[in-house]
Specification:
5 helices, mainly alpha
Length: about 220
């Protein structure tokens, strides 16, 4: 009876199954992306991820452990020198299984097994999303600044508009105050001129009367003689 047996046999013997998993893991580390059946992809993921976690220790014992499961030295060096720095501090989940649907010949489920940090299309999409978010944030900041500036300008314009009518009223009142003074001064001048003219006319009239009297007196004296 099979109880708690999680080994996926894949229709192979133990040695054949181990060889297929080793070949799948090596091709994954070389190409960073492989296409296989869904069952093989899941089995290869459970085989490759513990190797990566042990390799992250970066010790001699870890190198020997990895070389025990992957027999290609160049692939082991690539794993330690290139793949681990790109993985960084990712806490597991180094691979991704993407389902592709059924194959035409035997209708078996196909899938892609890939390293998460080497998906260029997804990285480009993430970069585009980040750039779009940054642009939106910048546009929002600029819009907020423009709105604040517009509000400040409106407040300043309102203050200026409120101050201008007061100044006009003051000038109008000053004009009103100055206008009667000017009118009074003009009236005074006119009255003075009229008085002076009247006085001149009076003086001229008195002189004429005096000359006329003198003439009359002289003419009377001549007649008497």
């Amino acid at each position: 009876m099979r109880h708690r047996d999680k080994v996926k046999k894949l229709g192979r013997t133990a040695s054949h199954r181990l060889a297929t998993l080793r070949s799948l893991a090596t091709s994954l580390f070389v190409h960073k992306k492989i296409k296989t059946t869904l069952a093989k992809a899941k089995a290869a993921r459970s085989f490759a991820e513990p190797i990566i976690t042990r390799a992250r220790e970066n010790t001699l014992h870890a190198r020997r452990y990895v070389s025990r499961h992957i027999h290609d030295r160049s692939v082991v060096q690539e794993l330690f020198n290139e793949i681990l720095p790109k993985i960084g501090e990712r806490p597991g989940g180094y691979t991704r299984v993407v389902k592709l649907g059924q194959r035409k010949g035997d209708a078996s489920e196909m899938a892609i097994l890939e390293l998460v940090d080497y998906n260029e299309l997804l990285a480009k999409q993430q970069k585009k999303k980040k750039e779009a978010k940054e642009k939106e944030a910048k546009e929002k900041e600029t819009k907020g600044k423009d709105k604040l500036e517009a509000k400040e300008e409106a407040v300043e314009e309102a203050k200026v508009a409120a101050e201008k009518p007061k100044a006009k009223k003051k000038t109008v009142s000053k004009k009103k105050e100055t206008e009667p003074k000017e009118k009074k001064a003009k009236v005074k001048k006119e009255t003075k001129e009229k008085k002076t003219e009247e006085e001149k006319d009076k003086k001229a009239g008195t002189k004429k009367k005096s000359t006329a009297k003198a003439k009359t007196t002289s003419s009377k004296s001549k007649k008497k003689k």
